[in-house]
Amino acid sequence: MVAPVTTSAGGGAAKAAAPGRGPTRGNVLAWLVVVPFLAYVGVFLVYPTILVLAGAFQDSNGAFTLSNLTDLMKGVYLQAFWRSIELSAITALLGAIFGALLSWAVASGRPEGLLRRVVVAAAGVLAQFGGVPLAFAFLATVGFQGFVTKFLQDSLGVNLFSGSAWIFELPGLTLVYTFFQIPLMVVVFLPALDGLRPQWREATESLGGGTWTYWRYVGGPILFSPFLGALLLLFANAFSAYATAAALVSQGSPIVPLQIRGFLTGEVLLGQENLGKALGLGMVIVVGVAMGLYALIQRRVSKWQ
Fold first, then answer.
1. What is the number of other CB atoms lying within 10 angstroms of the CB of residue 247?
2. Share of the chain above pLDDT 70, in %
3. Helix residue ranges, H only, 56-145
4. What integer pLDDT is reported at residue 282 of this predicted model?
5. Cα–Cα distance between 30 and 132 in angstroms, integer?
6. Three-state secondary-structure class, residue 44
7. Backbone dihedral region of 271: left (phi > 0), alpha (psi from -120 to 50 degrees) or beta?
């Protein structure tokens, strides 16, 4: 009677030890899979960031200096930062408002309805539609020879460019940026609307509250944090966008990414070789602050979802 018990205990111990070895091998395999991604991030994100950080505090001879940062606080560079912040804030606000309304229209419909499937699929595609193709699409539509421009001029006598060439200036960038900000807002904000439980509205109605009471004391406070987080994400997305503005604005550098392009592709004044890196450091700081606040808000949102 004793031997079978001992054998069973030993077999049980061996079986209990086996799972301990499995996760270890699994962890090694998981790290091996992650290594290419870490290498990619290190080469294309961490290493350039270190170069920008180091170069922002160096002069043309490699000596430490703060002149690059002080130059950002004056002249055309300070104006470029203010224009970038203004452009990002306006397009983020417009994208957040219209995107939230579109998300609410989708969330209020049937979960498996045609409207939801079409809008979600279109939002996923259009949120990534940018760069040269987006700039070309707008120029072909509302450019000097765009079909909408020609149609309005030939049929209604309306000239979209009677005042100025606004499509190549900040108003044009605002229109183009808002185009991809709205679908991005749908992608980010729709899960928050889906997280509103029907029981909360039913509880409000059972206590005598109406629609305004529900949105004032329940739905609104819950959605405020996700909305603010999405707004910050849209701001960072617009502030760091480059390809669309570079393809649309061929002359001048009204925003910071185009200022940096000038330092990388044009002639640089003597002693200002690292000023472009200082501009890049300024962008990293602004985007880092926005994304840090976004991460904090997401932690709070996760408590409700």
1. 18
2. 88
3. 67-71, 75-107, 114-126, 131-142
4. 92
5. 37
6. helix
7. left
240 HSE (CA, 13 A, CB side): 16
How many Å apart are CA 192 and CA 220, to the nearest integer? 11
CA distance 168 to 146: 14
Which residue in 127, 156, 137, 141 sits closest to 237, CA to CA? 127
Three-state DSSP at 129 gives: coil
pLDDT in tens, 125-165: 999 888 888 999 998 998 888 999 999 988 888 888 887 78
Angle between helices 114-126 and 75-107 (to 10 degrees): 160
- Short-list 187, 195, 219, 191, CA closest to 205: 219
Residue whose C-alpha is closest to residue 272's, from 281, 259, 263: 263
Closest CA to 262 of 243, 244, 246: 246
Residue type, 175: L
- What is the DSSP-derived secondary structure letter of residue 251? S
CA distance 137 to 130: 10
Q: Angle at Cα 271 formed by Cα 267 and Cα 277, nearest 5°?
A: 75
Task: Report the pLDDT averaged over residues 81-109.
Answer: 94
Distance CA 88, CA 84 (A): 6
Amino acid letter, residue 286: V
Residues in CB range of 119: below 8 A, 6 or more apart: 102, 106, 186
Contact call for residues 235 and 290 (beta carbons, < 8 A): yes
Q: Tell me how far apart the alpha carbons of residues 251 and 249 are, in angstroms, rounded to a whole number.
A: 6
For the record, the structure tokens of 40 come out as 């990619």
269-302 pLDDT per residue, tens: 666 778 889 999 999 999 999 989 988 888 876 6
